[in-house]
């Protein structure tokens, strides 16, 4: 069985978060969606669980970090091209996200990121493997 990853993120307003990520092209698994949570599908084995803050609190004794004030993690996603990087981040901004950092262009690797409506940081990056290996 292939390994899977489930990133769990607290959100203030589940419907607002679903609308935001839907506008970026992500889909959700209705089998794992209710008023407390939804399962955002990144790829066949990669998922992000968006959990309403009160529900998220049931999984940890620690306080929830305010991602608008501090960084708890950076979720990085690969893209198939530089254009896809720009497209995803532009869609995030159009949907209400922000771009806290400038584009990073290191020749073989290109990236840019956005901060979602709850302050979580997302990096989208493209790596040209031919250029990276010197071919």
UniProtKB/TrEMBL annotation:
Checking InterPro entries in the record gives: Glyas_Bleomycin-R_OHBP_Dase, Glyoxy/Ble-like_N, VOC_core
UniProt source species: Fodinibius sediminis
Residue ranges the record marks as coiled coil: none
Query: What protein does this entry describe?
Result: VOC domain-containing protein
Domain (VOC) spans 3-127
Mind telling me which SUPFAM superfamilies this protein's record contains? Glyoxalase/Bleomycin resistance protein/Dihydroxybiphenyl dioxygenase (SSF54593)
Q: Name one Pfam family in it.
A: Ble-like_N
Q: Per its UniProt record, what Gene3D superfamilies does this chain match?
A: 2,3-Dihydroxybiphenyl 1,2-Dioxygenase, domain 1
- Look up the domain of life of the source: Bacteria
């Amino acid at each position: 069985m292939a390994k899977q990853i489930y990133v769990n993120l607290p959100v203030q307003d589940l419907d607002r978060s679903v609308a935001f990520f839907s506008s970026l092209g992500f889909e959700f698994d209705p089998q794992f969606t209710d008023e407390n949570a939804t399962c955002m599908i990144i790829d066949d084995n990669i998922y992000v669980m968006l959990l309403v803050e009160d529900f998220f609190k049931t999984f940890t004794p620690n306080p929830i970090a305010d991602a608008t004030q501090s960084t708890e993690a950076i979720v990085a996603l690969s893209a198939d091209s530089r254009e896809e990087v720009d497209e995803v981040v532009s869609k995030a901004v159009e949907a209400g996200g922000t771009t806290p950092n400038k584009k990073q262009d290191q020749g073989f690797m290109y990236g840019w990121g956005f901060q979602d409506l709850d302050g979580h940081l997302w990096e989208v990056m493209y790596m040209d493997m031919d250029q990276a290996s010197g071919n």
